[in-house]
Design brief:
By secondary structure, this protein is an alpha+beta fold. It contains 10 helices and 14 strands.
């Protein structure tokens, strides 16, 4: 019988300290992504897919004011006149530059004033009572919201032209000892998917429920640039039989010929633009900036498929020795720099095999961090789903053409990344830090031999 992990409850003071730490870390990152830009860059729209950075900055403050200052704290508004401007559902991204937005100085002053009030609310909150406040959920939700926008702003930095303004040390290299195994067999049977115990899990991760998954094989690591180059060399972008009808139509209309930000020089060498700097494509790093249609075409070329969301989560959380679903691939402990490439510590994925401390008991690498991983699944609610605390976080997106991504990227903060965390986007999106790994059904011979049985 598979069961979900349980988490020990911290004291109120311990929880208050953790909240202050994650809020502070989020704000430090936001400042780093905006203070490095001049005013013209902050107010410019660097892509119609993205907001001006100054909109993201004030939107972060506005959400914090709405939920923590006004709702949890019951305080008077800091700015009651800007709620409409920073409502993401009222103003699509292409329209936001034309709005009468706060200028950079006003936006910084606003988010600072909001944060001062939030810290006072935190000092006075019992972090208990109604579900929104219990275990500091509202504070955790807002920290995740800010970090999600920080990752979006990081993607805007990647899309902008001009000199590089961000800096970080390179990711670790893989240790010597040869390549990671090609694939891992995950045993069939049921496991607990989702969570009912993670206090800051968002509504689409809930509730925990038992899912039966037949035995399958999954890639021991994400697909690398070297593997993707073989797809390019085999003319994968010009073979319609490898693409779905809709995928081929998009490939032609968008003129896709390689991952986004890749360029080929006159000598045939591939280069990748990384936040304003041109670097040779690193063969052992996971491929990044590919859309779902590209990932699906590669899988067909390789004679494989993308994993379902349930398969991905079982590979990431299931411990075959206990039958238990753990919080992370390595266990229940929080992410650390030794376990996963998260939090913008680096500005690119690490080589496959670079995080042996983050490997699952079955031998699957880098399921958390480095690149978001496309799955075969659409974005749908779990059985028993209840929207909380507002429908617009998840419910309004169910049932569209969205595809689920799992695992986080080098630009995802640990507060917004868990073994149960679900991301979603349109299958044409490439500006996100997304890659993929492959899966396959077991052959009849493997099934008859009991491979993967437990």
């Amino acid at each position: 019988m598979s069961v979900e992990h349980s988490t020990a409850s911290p004291t109120t003071e311990e929880l208050r300290g953790r909240i202050a730490q994650v809020l502070g870390r989020s704000r430090e990152r936001t400042a780093g992504l905006t203070d490095c830009m001049d005013e013209a860059d902050l107010v410019a729209q660097h892509s119609r897919l993205m907001s001006p950075l100054v909109w993201d900055l004030a939107h972060i403050g506005n959400q914090e004011e709405l939920w923590l200052v006004r709702d949890v704290g019951g305080r008077e508004p800091v700015r009651h006149d800007i709620d409409d401007l920073y409502d993401a559902f009222k103003h699509p991204r292409p329209d936001r530059p034309a709005l009468p937005l706060l200028d950079p100085a006003e936006a910084r002053g606003y988010v600072g004033a909001v944060r001062d009030k939030v810290l006072d609310v935190l000092d006075r909150s019992a972090l208990a009572g109604r579900p929104l406040e219990r275990d500091g959920f509202a504070f955790g939700m807002i920290a995740q919201h800010e970090q999600q926008h920080d990752e979006t702003m990081l993607a805007t930095h990647q899309l902008r032209s001009g000199r590089a303004v961000l800096d970080a040390p390179p990711p670790p290299a893989a240790p010597p000892g040869g390549p990671v195994a090609d694939e891992v067999i995950v045993p069939g049977g049921d496991f607990v998917m989702g969570t009912s115990t993670e206090p800051w899990a968002l509504d689409n991760e809930r509730p925990a429920h038992r899912v039966s998954v037949p035995a399958f094989a999954i890639g021991a690591a994400p697909i690398t640039n070297e593997q993707y180059l073989a797809f390019l060399a085999d003319d994968g972008y010009h073979r319609p039989e490898l693409w779905t009808e809709r995928g081929w139509q998009h490939r032609v209309e968008a003129d896709l010929t390689a991952p986004q930000f890749w360029e080929r020089d006159t000598d045939g060498n591939w280069w990748r633009r990384v936040f304003g700097a041109m670097r040779p494509v690193a063969p052992r790093q996971p491929v990044v900036h590919v859309c779902w249609f590209e990932a699906d075409a590669f899988a067909r070329w390789a004679g494989r498929r993308l994993p379902t969301e349930a398969e991905w989560e079982k590979a990431a959380r299931f411990d075959p020795s206990t039958g238990r679903s753990r919080r992370y691939p390595w266990g229940d402990g929080d992410p650390t720099p030794e376990r996963a490439n998260l939090g913008q510590r680096h500005l690119e994925p690490a080589e496959v095999g670079a995080y042996p401390a983050g490997v699952t008991p079955m031998g699957v690498h880098q399921l958390i961090g480095d690149v978001w991983e496309w799955t075969a699944s659409g974005f749908e609610p779990y059985p028993g789903f209840t929207a909380f605390p507002y429908r617009e976080y998840s419910e309004v997106f169910f049932g569209g053409d969205y595809r689920v991504l799992r695992g986080g990227s080098f630009g995802t903060d640990s507060v917004a990344c868990r073994g149960t965390f679900r991301n979603w986007d349109h299958p044409i999106r490439r500006q996100i830090f997304a890659g993929f790994r492959l899966a396959r059904d077991l052959t009849p011979a493997e099934n008859s031999a009991g491979v993967g049985a437990r």
